[in-house]
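Internal QA ticket QA-208
Title: Verify multi-chain structure generation after dependency bump
Assignee: T.L.

Test input:
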Amino acid sequence: MKKVGLKEIAEHVGVSTALVSYVLNGQAIEKQVNKETAEKILSAAEALNYRPNQIAKSLKMRKTHTIGLVVAEINYRFSTGITRAIEGEAKKNNYTVIYGSSNENQEKFAELVNVFINRQVDGLILVPAEHSEEQIRFLQKAEIPFVLVDRNFPDIKTNYITLDNYKAAYKATEYLIATHHRRICMVNYKTTLFNLLERNRGYRDALKDHKIPFKQKWLQSINVEDIPQALDHVLTATDPCDALFFATDTLALHGLKYLNRKKLNVPGDVSVLSFDESDAFELFYTPITHSRQPLEEMGKQAVNTLLELIDHNKISKQISLEADLIIGKSCKES
Amino acid sequence: MKKVGLKEIAEHVGVSTALVSYVLNGQAIEKQVNKETAEKILSAAEALNYRPNQIAKSLKMRKTHTIGLVVAEINYRFSTGITRAIEGEAKKNNYTVIYGSSNENQEKFAELVNVFINRQVDGLILVPAEHSEEQIRFLQKAEIPFVLVDRNFPDIKTNYITLDNYKAAYKATEYLIATHHRRICMVNYKTTLFNLLERNRGYRDALKDHKIPFKQKWLQSINVEDIPQALDHVLTATDPCDALFFATDTLALHGLKYLNRKKLNVPGDVSVLSFDESDAFELFYTPITHSRQPLEEMGKQAVNTLLELIDHNKISKQISLEADLIIGKSCKES
DNA sequence: TTACATACTTTAAACGATTAAAGCAAGGGG
DNA sequence: CCCCTTGCTTTAATCGTTTAAAGTATGTAA
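Actual output:
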């Protein structure tokens, strides 16, 4: 089956490609194309099973109707959730999403961004990897439309959609305090990422505002493989923690696995609160109380902000969304 | 920052775009370009931060270096696994993957395939939705390179990579029999999909070969929301089943949730065996014995088969891979 | 009869790359 | 002095679209 393009249709009907293009783009009336001719063209296109070559169209129009999305790590629940939301919203607006995962690696992040730019995406939605400030600055200088999601760099002024991490963590901590926990441990990554550090700040401020003196060892800033030592440290002390606040679902997952292994009961032996929900929580014996990010909303806002940026240029949006605290049964309510 | 193309470099150096193109494509020697000129071109490209316009290149070369991937449902573990594998292998070969999910809907499947074709993907990797035979036949007639993964239609001769579902189910059932289970229930979707039906066939043949008379009610062909009734039916009978063989991880997940709700212990009250592993199994109190598909291998084979098809045309490959039975602790070994 | 509007349709130049083919200058052989 | 190489560079067509601008034919008014 040979390719059929405008030319083939034009020959078949006996007109020029221009006319075919007009008709097929719905400009038949505007361009005053003879009705019969228009009909002939339409039915020829149908009969020959014409498929416009989007590549040629993109080249001419300098518009690919494609968004590049870079997430931090495809395995995160956050990533699949936000991807889904973004794809849905993009599709509504007739955009395709091509995406890749940086695996939290700054170089891979830069590489993906470059690949997308070469493919002439109309804009980018990015969950930036740690230390990718330089790449972001480059995008600004190059005037490439982009919006950050989930993470932003406080000292670079960009468009972004994030969670109000401070508030979410504050509220979560407050909930633990209200349910009579007094020795609350926060388990977070050892990181420089602003959004994660904001969670620590929310946690600490909540303690402070409720007059609970903070102990340094309650704030565990670790890598995921160090969960066992960290939990041992805070759970077997003379004054063991009565609640574990995990700053991400991945940390919580590993934490819960460790608790299972140690046969520690949740919430009997220790209360657990998580940020976000992992699929894996579904079969844990107790529903995990967690702070839920509005992924749908984030994705929607991200796409819409980006499209505004692409179409009308030069807008500035910094959006903070609020998390919902979903009450499960993983915190003792005594 | 205005766009820099071949033209800008050419002007900057004072040569024609042809020369620039040659040098930038590593044909400097072949085309006997003056060494100094070549160097000037290269450094100009660097200095101006030249990025080739892949769209223009694709149009000219009639090659996009893009693969279209359609999965059945983004939420399946199988889908994320195979996507990951395919992306990895594609990247190794300098291909980009654009993908979409049909959500098991035949029309959405066809639509996605069309979008990809319009975008001039070089080939397709497809997990076909139920009843999409027509679309597959169309692709064959149009001579568009594609390979099916996971699912194939026995009466259409295509290239495909699947699991040997019959054998996997046979072996799994045999394991249950070997561990002294005699009333084994198979829970599968109500479907016409060949690969899923093969699992039933494997199950039944294993029973037959071990002289266990099959009872109709042991084979539950249902929709996922009917799990509760189905399990009630087979577990509360006068002669309740001693093992549940779930044909997919999704079914198993819902089954386990139901067992949790009913406070039925695994494997104390009933043994459980699953096809594939859901992330959610991680926090179940007992590791689930399951048949594991070699996703990495499938993805790799799919990409390589497709690339052969794209490059050398006209090959025919039907590949069946074997599953591994991963022994957990969800089957009583008495 | 001329002029001009109306109703269509075609021409041809883009978009940014690739690449066969042609062009040009210098040097060597006869 | 003419012709042919060799070494290097440019010209121009092409990929499949879009779209201003120009073209043509017919009808109508002055």
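Spot checks passed. Residues 6-52 of chain A form a domain with the 434 Repressor (Amino-terminal Domain) fold (CATH 1.10.260.40).
Status: verified.
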